[in-house]
Amino acid sequence: MHDCDVDEASNEMSEPGGAVPAARSFPLTSGSLGGKLAVGQRVQVEIHDLAFGGEGVGRVGDFVIFVPFVCPGELVDAKVVEVKRSFARGVVARVLRRAPERVEPECRYFEECGGCQYQHLRYASQLQWKQKQITDLFERIGGFPAAVIQPVIPCPSPYGYRNRILVRSQWNKPAQKLNLGYVRADGGLVCDVESCAIAEPGLNIALTEWRKNPPAKGGMKSVLRIPPDDWDVPEHSFFQNNFFALPFLVESVRKSLLSAGTRHLIDAYCGVGFFSLSLADALESFTGVELDAQAIAAARRNQLRRGYKNGEYIAGDADAWLPRLLRQCDPGVAAVLLDPPRVGCQPSTLRVLRASQPAQILYVSCHPATLARDLKILCEGGLYQLASVQPVDMFPQTQHVECVADLRRTGVSKAV
């Protein structure tokens, strides 16, 4: 099990932010632009969609323009900050017509800090838009029907949920001081953060103490973490960062396992054994595989603590072990659980799975685009069918969302 690279408040979008100087605003058409937009231009934009990543989508003539921190249905006065061949990016100077879904952010650093993209959007609307984004990505990338995407399961605590954050120090030369906090939304600079609205209260206490005794220089990273109860997790090993929504994630995997009737589980990228040990009571046997030797040692301690004797943990490469492990059990009643980094599975892993053909593949991912890509490869030729995708909102107020995909072998063996 690996992290989803969303441990720090970082923004993967490249739009600049900051204050926008006053300028005359006027509506534009493709004719008035001569087919072009220019950096620095002010335009009125009607926002009609919300792209995966958090940017609002509008049009100015023939140009698509992406604008962060807006709501669909709004009319905004935007300043163009980047122009490409077929699209542009802008920043909001003024909201001319507010959407009913717009709310006041709970964090004073919102729009400056890069950690959150949706604090201005009512939480129920965040869930609806995340489901639409997942559905659109699965249709466009994988060719999967919208019907397989289930409604997003909400987090019981939309704020104060993160149990792990990555904070940085950076020397602020003009102010002659260290900035201590998260990477800004508009680039690589660090936003000085005294508290984080999406972090658990205990982490904000730790953040205050960290700021009192900061690193000696800039360029340093520090991980602040609240350990999970009753789990052994080494300092650098992964554990899901939202304890509030985690039970829903486990229950989604359990529901799929029971529905398929699979009795043997191979937990690839197993980390400290969280999924396999959480499901052990529903299985005849399980095996976890993980390259991180410290995580495997912790998984064995976690297993001993729980008293399960129907499984084992192996330190090694999942690609090398998968064929051997599937030969040791009946693939017809075996499931493979994948929880890779957000970049997705290696092509070799997908080839091994298509060759071994377990009855079920359960794929947990925090990046719907790479998930849809990998599922398309696994389903090629009709070898597997995508039964369902259950999104769970492990990252409220942000662009990220966790998904559990359930693949079932169709029963027709295909050449691979």
Based on the model shown, name its key terms:
416 residues; alpha/beta; OB fold (Dihydrolipoamide Acetyltransferase, E2P); Rossmann fold; five-stranded mixed β-barrel; 16 strands
Short structural description:
It contains 9 helices and 16 strands. With 416 residues, the chain is α/β, with parallel strands linked by helices.
List the helices and strands and how they pair.
Blueprint: H1 30-33, E1 42-50, E2 55-60, E3 63-68, E4 75-83, E5 87-97, H2 123-142, E6 164-172, E7 177-183, E8 190-192, H3 201-212, E9 221-225, H4 246-260, E10 264-268, H5 274-279, E11 285-290, H6 293-306, E12 311-315, H7 318-327, E13 334-338, H8 347-356, E14 360-365, H9 368-379, E15 384-392, E16 402-409
Parallel strand pairs: 3-5, 10-11, 10-13, 11-12, 13-14
Antiparallel strand pairs: 1-2, 1-4, 2-3, 4-5, 6-7, 6-9, 7-8, 14-16, 15-16
Helix pairs in contact: 2-9, 7-8
What does this structure look like?
Among the domains are: about 30-95, Nucleic acid-binding proteins (OB fold (Dihydrolipoamide Acetyltransferase, E2P), Beta Barrel), CATH 2.40.50; about 125-155 and about 240-410, Rossmann fold (3-Layer(aba) Sandwich), CATH 3.40.50.150. It is built from nine helices and 16 strands. The chain has helices spanning about 30-35, 125-140, 200-210, 245-260, 275-280, 295-305, 320-325, 345-355, 370-380; strands at about 40-50, 55-60, 65-70, 75-85, 85-95, 165-170, 175-185, 190, 220-225, 265-270, 285-290, 310-315, 335-340, 360-365, 385-390, 400-410. The strands form three sheets. A seven-stranded mixed beta sheet has the order 12-11-10-13-14-16-15, with helices on both faces. The protein has a five-stranded mixed barrel with strand order 1-2-3-5-4. The longest helix has 20 residues, at about 125-140. It is globular. Residues about 5-35 have low confidence and may be disordered.
